[in-house]
Amino acid sequence: MTEVISEELPITRQKPFDPPAEVTEIREKARISRLRFTDGHLGWLVTGHHQVREVLGSPKFSNDPRKHHLLDKRFQGDVPDDPEARKPQPGLFLSQDPPDHTRLRKMLQGQFTVRRMNQLSEWIGTIVDDQLKHVRSLNGKADLVTEFALPVPSLVICALLGVDYDERHRFQEDTATLLRLGSSFEEVRAALERIQGFMRELITRKKANPGDDMISDLLATGEPTDEEASNMAMLLLLAGHETTANMLGLGTFTLLRHPDQLKILKDEPESIDNAVEELMRYLSIVHFGPVRTAVEDVEIDGHLIKAGDTVLLHLPAANRDPDKFAGDPDELDLRRPASGHVAFGHGIHQCLGQQLARIEMRIGFSKLFQEFPDLRLDVAPEEVPLRADMGIYGVHSLPVAWSA
Amino acid sequence: MRISVDQSKCCGSGMCVLTDPDLFDQSEEDGTVVLLQEHPDAAHEATAKEAASLCPASAITIS
């Protein structure tokens, strides 16, 4: 078997909704190929759906950032070589392996069950309605990201966690810094420290005055330390708004550029559940990645991945893999069976808030196009600023218009 | 067909409940899987298999 080797991960997207064409070409040559990391390490690039699932589902791979080889000089050039500088902080279970990960995630799992999230539907519906009323007041044009896509999930996660939405200035800009690929290591550290300061204050307040919210419930269990609780709360806050916000923004852009598909959604409102899955498959929104590092030798699809090898799992490429998705996976098709996509990841780190995200997206897209059936782009499509510079892909803004 | 679940592997994603709430539920306490029917009837065989394949933690086995 001829090995395909990339000296650098292609990250430039030629089309707004597709992964880089070079990554698609690599996938068609080899679902598992080699990728050079910054220190010269010859690691792996996994672009096949089945293979991505196998790695993410395997206990032989770690997500401890100290174990990973750094991916890219273009945006990690100033990360210290000393792995201990990347030690995950207590409570940041996304960057931890079992048993720490298991213990911390379990404390939250009961809060995000399908049943609990379904019970929030009506309440989320009123948040969406209120936000759409606000959009309606804007006289026929607006930036949909600022006025709808970002506020809806931010309002939802703030209320669930017991964070005052009026204090969003204390985390929204710092969140953007954390996600910006060009942020320096120092900028990231400073942003992280500011958000952590905010979360520590919140934990202190909740301990003194518990409310009807997830953080108070978490503290009431007595299980996490204060430091763990504040980092867990931070993770929920960050993961809870940027991701869904970008699916709503980029998803709306996508639907406006696929009027035949949007018509299905408008004509058949019951198609929304699968429409959301297909939009997630089609867009992924994780720009590239995540990465894992093998902790022992493991064979994946005929390739021997050695202990210490770092592997990049390319979710956008996997979600377009024709071995998994029949027909033309590069076409948006709201009627396609899209379940099994890996936009939420796979394995023990699969998105904890996915059932909340699904409900926010179902209600968000449905009500947006019911309330604004003639919604249209207010700029040429090529003028929509894309989040090519962010770890979570999407649109920075989405100028839209409607008949007022 | 027999379904078995391994709570110690489960990571509470809810994919099984989303796929077939007649067969699976989640514990209120820690979100882990609760099996509602060990021997599903023919009407639920396909969704049982789908739930097993979608489970991110491979906590569901069909035999």
- List the helices and strands of chain B in order: EHEEHE
Helix content of chain B: 10-25%
Q: What fraction of the residues of chain B are assigned to beta strands by DSSP? A: 15-25%
pLDDT < 50 runs, ≥5 residues of chain B: none
Say what the CATH topology of chain A is: Cytochrome p450
Query: What percent strand of chain A?
Result: 5-15%
How would you describe this structure in keywords?
heterodimer, A: 404 residues, Cytochrome p450, three-stranded antiparallel β-sheet, globular, B: 63 residues, two-stranded antiparallel sheet, two-stranded antiparallel ribbon, 19% strand, iron (chain B), iron-sulfur (chain B), Ferredoxin (chain B)
Characterise this structure.
The complex is a heterodimer of chains A (404) and B (63). Chain A is of the alpha+beta class. Chain A has one domain: Orthogonal Bundle (Cytochrome p450), CATH 1.10.630. Helix content of chain A is 45%, strand content 9%. Chain A is built from 16 helices and 11 strands. Chain A has a 6-stranded mixed sheet, covered by helices on one side. In chain A, strand 2 (32-36) and strand 3 form a beta hairpin. In chain A, helix 9 runs antiparallel to helix 10 (185-208). The termini of chain A are far apart. The mean pLDDT of chain A is 96. Chain B is of the alpha+beta class. Chain B starts with a strand and ends with a strand. Chain B has a two-stranded antiparallel ribbon. Chain B has a single domain (3-57), classed as Alpha-Beta Plaits. Chain B has 2 helices and 4 strands, in the order βαββαβ. Chains A and B meet through helix 4, helix 5 and helix 16 of A and helix 1 and helix 2 of B.
In short:
The complex is a heterodimer of chains A (404) and B (63). With 404 residues, chain A is α+β, with helices and mostly antiparallel strands. In chain A, 45% of the residues lie in helices and 9% in strands.
Set out the fold topology.
The complex is a heterodimer of chains A (404) and B (63).
Chain A: E1 5-6, H1 21-29, E2 32-36, E3 42-46, H2 49-56, E4 61-62, H3 73-76, H4 100-109, H5 114-119, H6 121-136, E5 141-143, H7 144-149, H8 151-161, H9 172-179, H10 185-208, H11 214-220, H12 226-256, H13 259-267, H14 272-283, E6 291-294, E7 298-300, E8 303-305, E9 310-313, H15 315-318, H16 354-371, E10 376-377, E11 399-401
Helix pairs in contact in A: 6-8, 6-16, 8-12, 9-10, 10-12, 12-16, 14-16
Chain B: E1 3-5, H1 15-19, E2 24-26, E3 33-35, H2 45-54, E4 60-62
Antiparallel strand pairs in B: 1-4, 2-3
